[in-house]
Amino acid sequence: MSYNMKEVVANKPSRFAEGHKMCAGCGAPVVARHILRALKEEDHAVISCATGCMEVSTFTYPYTSWTDSFIHSAFECASSTLSGAEAAYKSLKKQGKLPNDKTTKFIAFGGDGGTYDIGLQSLSGAMERGHDLTYVCYDNGAYMNTGIQRSSATPKFADTTTSPAGTVIPGKMQSRKDLTTILAAHHIKYAAQTIAMADFRDLYEKAEKAIYTEGPTFLNVLSPCPRGWGYDTSDLMTINKLAVQTCYWPLYEVVDGKYKITNKPAKKLPIQEFLRPQRRFKHMFKPGNEWMIEEFQKEVDRRWQELLDLEEMTNK
């Protein structure tokens, strides 16, 4: 992205307004604002948002942070609701009831609870049916809106209210689900994993590709939560950077089945650099618990190598 292009992007009017009620230091509003900035100014968007932190904090009737059309869906329905809206717009255009020269894009937002778990069925259905929409998961790694319960996106050993680290169990005992690969396996044209704040260019360019690729597309965006993760609100940028530099959250895209890693750290940091600033992992640093960090590191290394192998294999 050239300097002039950066200036143009930065000066675009925000389609996600100030005044929302999201927590200080939360990654989710950054995700929404910058993804919507990838829309062309002349285009209209229909936004579907699953129940969750973003929905309850940005749309309290009669107030809204969304300048485009907005639909609140139940936890499990964001994809199916948006599928219906996309099909309705298509039908109305064919009937001549909507102008054909007006471009409308369809974008869904959901947290990991409403995406990895409760909403997976409707999301998979929308991908399989081929609706022209983009689904964005803002992944904060737990059910943050309802009390920080574990989800299938919660990393192993994380301390949550339903997987408390104590004398019986050392936090969550299962590894997190690899949702980006699952969505790519639907043979959609575009799926990507990106991040808020650590690499705005990566986020913007992937959002633009996703929104303007015909058919169903998917973005998985790491979205740290200061309440659930237990970091100082001013450390949002640092946490994001460490997630990438340790390869806990690799940045990559899958275009027509071909994997491309978009950020390969020059010096891969040990995973404890990402874990240490977070209260949910503090028990891992107690004497005698070194095995947890070692096991976590092995899992990160294994997944990183799998990704490197996929990139090589799919680009031969």
Explain this structure.
The protein has one domain (3-314): Rossmann fold (3-Layer(aba) Sandwich). Helix content is 37%, strand content 17%. The protein has helices at residues 3-10, 28-36, 53-58, 78-94, 112-117, 120-129, 179-184, 200-211, 226-229, 236-245, 272-275, 290-314, and strands at residues 44-50, 59-60, 63-64, 69-73, 104-111, 134-139, 190-195, 217-222, 251-255, 258-263. Strands 4-1-5-6-8-7-9-10 form an eight-stranded mixed beta sheet, with helices on both faces. Strands 2-3 form a two-stranded antiparallel sheet. A hairpin with a 2-residue loop joins strand 2 (59-60) and strand 3. Helix 2 packs across helix 8 and helix 4 (78-94) runs parallel beside helix 6 (120-129). The radius of gyration is 19 Å and the shape is globular. The model has no long low-confidence stretch (mean pLDDT 94).
Largest sheet: 8 strands, mixed
What's the count of strands? 10
Overall number of domains: 1
- How many H/I helices? 12
| Series of H and E elements | HHEHEEEHEHHEHEHEHHEEHH
Question: What is the gist of this entry?
Answer:
The chain has twelve helices and ten strands. It is an alpha/beta fold and about 325 residues long. It has a single domain, classed as Thiamin diphosphate (ThDP)-binding fold, Pyr/PP domains (Rossmann fold, 3-Layer(aba) Sandwich).
